[in-house]
Amino acid sequence: MSITVLDTCSAMKRILTAPATDRVDLLRSMLEPIQGMYRYYPGEVDLVGIHRQTSGFPIDRDEERCLDAIETLAAAGARERMQRALDDALAVLLEATPGLEAPDITVALVLGDPSDEHFMGPCKGLTGFGGISGYIAITFWPFPENVERLEATAVHELHHNLRFGPGGVVWDPATVTVGEHVVSEGLADAFARQLYGDELGPARIGVPHLHDDEVFSKVLTGLDVTGMENFSAWVHGDPGAERFGLTPVGLPMGAGYAAGNRLVDTYLAATGQTAAQALHADSSEIIAATLSRG
Predict the structure, then answer these.
(1) Where does the DUF2268 domain lie (predicted)?
(2) Once rounded to an integer, what is the mean pLDDT over residues 254-258?
């Protein structure tokens, strides 16, 4: 049971300083350790194609800008900080959840695309994916606010990884609800806040709407929606929906994160649990703690 944070800074620097003809193969090689993250994808996995689709750094432009960003990450000790944070967070979760089955986890911190307006704007230079057991990928631009939150970002994704890992909550794409996704974001944020406080813990995209009652009420109306193609509109808001060609529902970016924080905080207050102890809490019970209050 171990966590390995890959040395992607060295690999990315090597890619961006290599001859253009070598870069695709070098990028594919860097990403191979997390190929298992895409084990549920239909057909053969194109790691380079996925990298491009998920706002990964370009290999044919913006070299100097990206190399400067890589130096910023290296100077900030990004890899070492994330490794310490994840090791410490795993210890907290293991103590809080007796019998927890934690797989070996591979973590990749990948620079984002500075010319991607959606990534740099609405996403604030940060996306993460930790829902597939054994793997965490974080796409990152080193804005100062993001660098400050490196640890909180990493442990947020770890909470996802273990919530949906062996012996945890089953994510069935055919039946899973918006409510499950919203609750999982709220729990992951609550765990990051448990370890790093209310200033650094919450995901940045949800912070502007944490106390917006109108946004909260709107998200509540979509909690029973099923079908993962609908989730972005309810969790990431209209900007996320529009990015993927989906139908907006009238919500701002990060609405589901903000609502998830409120749902989870109500549940934790009612039960006296920590976010670590609530790792595998049933989402319907978490939602009911709020709805029962009228």
Answers:
(1) 100-287
(2) 98
Locate 22 and state its tokens: 């070598």
Torsion (CA) 75, 4, 181, 91 in degrees, nearest 10: -100
**Cβ atoms < 10 Å from Cβ of 162:** 28
What CA–CA distance (Å, rounded) separates 77 from 81? 6
Cα–Cα distance measured from residue 17 to residue 22, given in angstroms and rounded to the nearest whole number:
10
Task: Provide the b/e sequence for 244-267 (b: ≥16 CB within 10 Å).
Answer: eebeebebbbbbbbbbbbbbbbbb
Instruction: Report the SS3 class of residue 68.
Output: helix
Q: Token pair 């996306």 is at which residue?
A: 127
Average pLDDT score over the chain = 95
- In the chain, which ranges are continuous DSSP H helix? 8-17, 23-31, 47-53, 63-75, 78-96, 117-120, 144-148, 150-163, 178-200, 213-220, 231-235, 238-243, 255-271, 283-291
Assess contact for 86 and 152: CB atoms under 8 A. no
H-helix or E-strand containing 214? Answer: helix 213-220
CA angle 84, 273, 265 (to 5 degrees): 90
> What letter represents residue 27's amino acid?
L
Handedness of CA 226, 227, 228, 233 (dihedral sign): negative
Query: What tokens does 127 get?
Result: 């996306």
Separation CA 109–CA 78 (nearest Å): 9
pTM of structure: 0.96
Place of tokens 């804005």: 143
If one counts every other C-beta atom within 10 angstroms of the C-beta of residue 117, the result is: 11
DSSP state of 278: T
Do residues 137 and 71 make contact, with C-beta atoms less than 8 angstroms apart?
A: no
pLDDT cut 70: percent of the chain above it = 100
